[in-house]
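Box 3.1 A note on notation
Throughout this textbook, protein chains are presented in two layers. The first layer is the amino acid sequence; the second is a token string describing backbone geometry. Keep the layers aligned when reading.
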Amino acid sequence: MIIRFGDFDLNLISGDLFRDRSLISLKPQPTRLLVALASQPGILMTRKQIRERIWMREIFIDYENGINSCVRQLRRALDDDSRRSMYVQTESRRGYRFIAPVKTLDSGGAPPALVVAQKAVVNRPVAAGGAIKLQVMPFRDISDHEGALHLAEGLSEEFLVQLAHTCGSQVAVIDDPDEDTAASRNTYILKGTVRREGARLRVTVRVMHACDRQVVRTEILERELVSVLDLQLEVAKFLAQSVGEFALRSIA
């Protein structure tokens, strides 16, 4: 379902946010916050409810600053001033509510699908050490009609976040390895693909040695596509845990 408020159109399923038919880049957590608030305009969402909706069961210690950061990012994307808010209203010490009038669009009023020519650069968490060194390549959409392009991009970012939370110092995420690093048997490359077929999604991930491209681990997940944001989080957490288990076995 797509809703419109002000100059913005929001897809409540995929989380895609458009302004004047241009796609706005927004990270997964503030996107979840926007979808949660805009889907129930005028209703107060407490900070506890936001924490449960955004982070679900994942371990995250500094929820308060995390929520504040999400709200700031969301307001920047919406050009919303907290002192004269048009979209996200703050209830001091309680939570937030979406205050803009919301209109539901039919398919004819939806913005056209946009093709992103180049993936935005992701700020990767890099550890100084680590049981293994891992170069994470952007997930590729191999669907017939680019049906999972945005999902693949969001999954790349969410996976890096979950990898940092789950693996800590066990995995050092690196950019292009130099010659000596690539020659090490302790350096790996992770490549992932996403394929959408109707309401089903298949994610395939392969981990291989950087020195000879020998595949050492493969994961294939198939899921029903209900909520893109929840699916990204679920798959990213599973893959991060899988990589963590592999890292532990590599030094056992």
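The longest strand covers residues 187-197. The two ends are 49 Å apart (CA to CA).
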